[in-house]
Amino acid sequence: MSERKPRIAVDMDEVIADPLSKFISLYNRDYGIPLDLQILPGNEMYHHVPENIKMKLWDYINEKGFFRDLAVLPDSVEVLKQLQEKYDIFIVSAAMEFPNSLQDKYEWLAEHFPFIGWQNIIFCGHKIVNVDILIDDRIKNFVDFDGRKLLFSSPHNMLLTGYERVNNWKEVGEKLL
Amino acid sequence: MSERKPRIAVDMDEVIADPLSKFISLYNRDYGIPLDLQILPGNEMYHHVPENIKMKLWDYINEKGFFRDLAVLPDSVEVLKQLQEKYDIFIVSAAMEFPNSLQDKYEWLAEHFPFIGWQNIIFCGHKIVNVDILIDDRIKNFVDFDGRKLLFSSPHNMLLTGYERVNNWKEVGEKLL
């Protein structure tokens, strides 16, 4: 493995894809939750909807199509394209938790990140990947990982300290290019 | 990572699932290829059908449903159940090459290997998994892997030497239990 390019594993949801805006728009459509809802630091989306519709989140996320039309997070396409010259980029998503998402996520990646081939896409549960750098918004994925961990900012992780944090893709580019 | 159970990554096709019999039955149905066809050592399935229908293989494999009803290879369920007591078992399939297979493979695993949770299923391209043992029929998946490699016998790999070979799941059990 000595002469290979360094490898970066990149999470999907809340790192390159935006499920939060989709949740908000669905909650708005079905229950009138305001579209300008802000998720407070340390909170998950479900902390911001009334108790009786909290669990609706799981219906949304398990629905076929949920992941197919998520917005792409700013600058992720451009920065990943640049990083690809220097690194071997893998997309690593814990998609297996939501089996209906598998095809959607595959097609979403093919549409927005066509420069990342199927060889470099990994849908899994535990992220037991042999890479050098992991960019993720969930610290549970860092627990068993020995490489460099970049915590990608998302509302739910904003109170966490002690991690190397990146707030957006421009910052990822500054650190890794 | 020091106190974890050792991890085994197990390939799907030609290791726990039997696509070859399915190919033969489809070729039989469509072109009268005999059902008792034997694949000679070193050969792939496509070496055993006439030139003009060789590529039909790719149509079969890309069809939704192809992977959903494959036969389970003998003793794989029982031995993996036993191995699970001592090892952390991951199913690692290069399913990403055939996006239509993702849901089928997920459902097939849920049906036949319900004791393996979604956390331990990995659909990928390159198998860059951080495990201790890899059981696979394709040596290309061994190239970049530092752990113990068990070559699971399948017609196409029978001429290869220099690998630790297992001919069936009973032998896997004898080696690893």
UniProtKB/TrEMBL annotation, chains A, B:
<dbReference type="GO" id="GO:0009223">
    <property type="term" value="P:pyrimidine deoxyribonucleotide catabolic process"/>
</dbReference>
<dbReference type="InterPro" id="IPR036412">
    <property type="entry name" value="HAD-like_sf"/>
</dbReference>
<dbReference type="GO" id="GO:0008253">
    <property type="term" value="F:5'-nucleotidase activity"/>
</dbReference>
<dbReference type="Pfam" id="PF06941">
    <property type="entry name" value="NT5C"/>
</dbReference>
<feature type="active site" description="Proton donor">
    <location>
        <position position="13"/>
    </location>
</feature>
<dbReference type="InterPro" id="IPR010708">
    <property type="entry name" value="5'(3')-deoxyribonucleotidase"/>
</dbReference>
<feature type="active site" description="Nucleophile">
    <location>
        <position position="11"/>
    </location>
</feature>
<protein>
    <submittedName>
        <fullName>5'(3')-deoxyribonucleotidase</fullName>
    </submittedName>
</protein>
<dbReference type="InterPro" id="IPR023214">
    <property type="entry name" value="HAD_sf"/>
</dbReference>
<comment type="similarity">
    <text>Belongs to the 5'(3')-deoxyribonucleotidase family.</text>
</comment>
